[in-house]
Design a protein that fits this description.
With 134 residues, this protein is of the alpha+beta class. Helices cover 25% and strands 37% of the residues. The protein has a five-stranded mixed β-sheet with strand order 1-7-4-6-5, covered by helices on one side. A two-stranded antiparallel ribbon has the order 2-3. It is globular, with a radius of gyration of 17 Å. The N and C termini lie far apart (39 Å).
């Protein structure tokens, strides 16, 4: 399974340090912050492999939800096209995301589902800038 990572938004949180990044012709100091992360991973599964994929995903979901930095890890299936899936995950911060990516079950998941999917996953990592509680 090939993953495409896209950072959607950053610039939040309470732990502020900075790093240098090229912005146009200028090298600028950009804040590096610690905030909640949401990950979505859209996956198309080969129609004849849906049950096998769901079995493999079940283990990933159960183990990921036990991680201390994971708020939730869920899989949704499109009701109009059962071969379309989306994982929705929420982590306390970037450190929790990196810890998740370092687990053996995460590293094994891609090769495990490689023959079950119809193409690369579309993965987005979103930094939550502000959360309003109501």
């Amino acid at each position: 399974m090939q993953l495409c990572l896209v950072a959607i938004f950053s610039g939040c949180g309470s732990k502020n340090t900075s790093e240098s990044k090229q912005v146009g012709d200028t090298l600028a100091k950009v804040p590096v912050t610690d905030c909640k992360k949401i990950i979505t991973a859209k996956i198309s599964v080969k129609p004849e492999k849906i049950k096998e994929f769901l079995d493999a995903a079940r283990e990933m979901i159960e183990k990921s939800n036990k991680e201390s930095g994971c708020s939730f890890y869920q899989l949704y299936q499109d009701p109009y096209d059962n071969s379309k899936m989306i994982f929705v995950e929420e982590y306390k911060n970037q450190v929790a995301v990196e810890a998740h990516f370092a687990t053996e079950y995460f590293k094994a998941f891609g090769p495990k589902i490689g023959d079950l999917v119809a193409g690369p996953a579309e993965v987005k990592i979103i930094s939550v800038a502000k959360e309003d509680l109501k």
